[in-house]
Amino acid sequence: MMDTIKNRKALLAIIGVGLIVRILFVLAFPNIGTIDAMDSAAYNAVAVNITKGLGFTQDGVNPTLFLPPAYPAFLSSIYFLFGHSTVLVELIQCLLNVGIACVTFLLAREFFSEAVAAIACLIALFHPEIIALTSFLYTETVFIFLFICLIYFTVRFYRTQKMIFLILAAVTGGICTLTRGITLYFPVIFFSGLIFVQPFKKAALNSALFSIFLCMTIAPWTIRNYRVSGSFTPVSVGLGYVLWAGNYLPFDGEYEYHKTQALADSMTNGMTFVERERFFTAEAKQNMKRDVAGTAKLWVKKLFRYWSRIYSTVPDGTKHAGKGIVYYVLLIIHLMLLFFFLPGILRTRNRWKEFMLIYLIFLYMTAIHVITLPWPRYRIPLIPFMGLFAAVEIVHLFNEKIKNRRKKRIHELPDL
Length: 416
Fold this sequence. Notes:
Layout: H1 2-28, H2 39-51, H3 70-82, H4 86-111, H5 114-126, H6 128-132, H7 140-160, H8 163-179, H9 186-194, H10 200-229, H11 239-246, H12 258-267, H13 273-290, H14 292-308, H15 325-347, H16 352-371, H17 383-412
Helix pairs in contact: 1-4, 1-5, 2-3, 4-5, 4-7, 5-17, 7-8, 8-10, 9-10, 9-16, 11-13, 14-16, 15-17
């Protein structure tokens, strides 16, 4: 009992160190995630316009459907209370970022020992890609925190059958979807995992309830979108655009930044957000039908891109020549994580029903980004789950080493 208390105190102290590391990182590199780079500019513009009373608009005049609402709302609430300070946003994101590691510990403890949970927590706590997110005005920090909470509440419902956890999971899933629309189809995953731990009819009923609560959470925003556009848009537009860009064979499915944007603008000049979405969706489908074999080959390439690509430097919307120390450090860490993750996931194969939900998350996130754009930052939400299985293998290897040492000592004892 005393050892457990001491271990938990030690873990809390290390978590405190993780928070300090993030704060120092933000203060030491205040401009690493400039608000003028990539998505940050759009989120910041909408947040500023909300605080000015202009509504959810990027240009200050026209309502936008291009961005999900949760992250701009998060930014605007900070701006409203404390003034326009991106450094303060980043410091608050430090807390959420550490929260990712804390919830990872709780999730891992549902399946494994506290030793495995502690190591999974440490991996999420000190992984440089997760730490670096604190300095960017991107959705990732908020999204990953909400996403890991969604999975934790879902697992708690699977195990306890308590309705409170279903409601918490659904509402968290709704807010998560309002942060990044990728979890809009999570009810399918919820049901697919639940049928392995509940009878089919009961799983179907609970999944329906989950879907209702999730839809109730996003419904006000869906109604707003219909009022401003006359079109059914659950969260935001943009899927058609990334589907087209990710399957545009002349660019080999790569997002060529300004080249892709210029081409897209020339093709859709004068169109509304909804018209652009429909146009790009239709174009993507036509391109895929036109060259099925080429698209299939591209998807295989993008599968490897999703799981192997590493940032060579700070992402800022431009291509960079060469690979610096950032690339090689991140590459080594990624390879080390894979080295422990793959055997760890195999080691749990006899408990596959328990882990079906986690397996489905890997498959779902991989499939979505193979079909669209496999940017390295879209793999970061999977790091806490990779760390969970990597921790299993690390603890196993450590225990095997201890056993071997004990056996060696026994053999070295003199005969009586």
